[in-house]
Request: fold
Amino acid sequence: MIYENKDLCKIRTISTFLTLTDDKITWEKELLDACNFCKSLSEKFNQRNYEVQSIRIVTNAFGEYLDTSSLQTAKEDLSFISNILDKSTTNLRIRFAIGEAKTFHEISLLPELILSFGDLANACVNVSIDENEILDNELIKESVKAVKKISLITPRGEGNFNFTVNFNCKPFIPYFPASYHKSDLENAFVLGLETPDLLVEVLKDFNKKNPNLSHNIALGSYANILKDALSYHCKNIKDILDNFENKSSFVFKGIDSSAAPSKNCSSMVEVYKQMGLNSFGRSGTVEISSLLTKVFRSVKELPLVGFSGLMLAVVEDKGLAQGTIDKDFDIRTLLTNSAICGIGLDTVPIEGDSSIEKIEQIMRDTGTMAFRLNKPLTVRLFPVPGLKEGDITKFESDDLCNSAVLALP
Reply:
């Protein structure tokens, strides 16, 4: 069976979650233990022909262990952490999340920390609701100020890749920068997958063998074959974990079954095309988004954590990036699909002069949906300095595709 090809299912990340205190003497052991654990587990996956793309370390809220009394002291502590991570013997990419920012002061530090440390300063803000289900709009306001400043001080505004605002997101999300940990939780690890190649090749193979099926039969068949493909690899992953001698303090919490596209794999747009749509965004998109969500949530072999749903990350997905240029969809389309179960508004390039008020409003809409529909959603917007709607970005990051800038509604 084509879905048995392990090259089509990659382990995007082994993400560890740990608690740091303000006693810096303990940091080296804690961080290198996490690196060594990830290295050891990745070798087990490699032995079974599964590629591991990155290892990630997520901490409790950075205000609990970094000296945030000033920007300078926070930078010194992050430099100390950076030097520790440089001692790791793994050849895998190491990404680091400093956890959530909880106070206005901590949020104000993030632009400069991200400018200086980039992928070692991933951070999020968790916005809650009160007893009347009203969002903490003051926290949103401070977060938007950080988004705007990051866009101005980091090259091409790319620093917003490392910052997101979370709504109704629980711990143990393996993907950055929504990841965060709580100090009252045990050390843990979770897995995140990259499966767009798997989805596309399975659908192509099925369509080649079964042309001209009716819509209902085709959709039902798509759901079944994609579930089977995902189940096959989750069974393999479970077997690897069951036979892995875990001598660390990291307890397995689950897997995020989201497809997690990147610029180096098939686009989720191609998945929609193989399921009968000429482009993402046209009528019929929500129907397929719903079906895919059910596929991702069908996993029974392993506990599900994180988003475990549809990821539509605009400038991490070459097809979606091209869709902005072809004017196939807008921000409203992304928000509509998030209601079915998406990640929210993720890596969306917007006009550089977008007002703080408009950004606040789209965050409030997203947050309201997250809590009303009881799903995790995030907002990670990229105001691109100097660019207007329709202009093409010139991102240089290896993680980002170039796309057209969208306007906030």
Notes: The chain has a mean pLDDT of 95. The chain has eleven helices and nine strands.
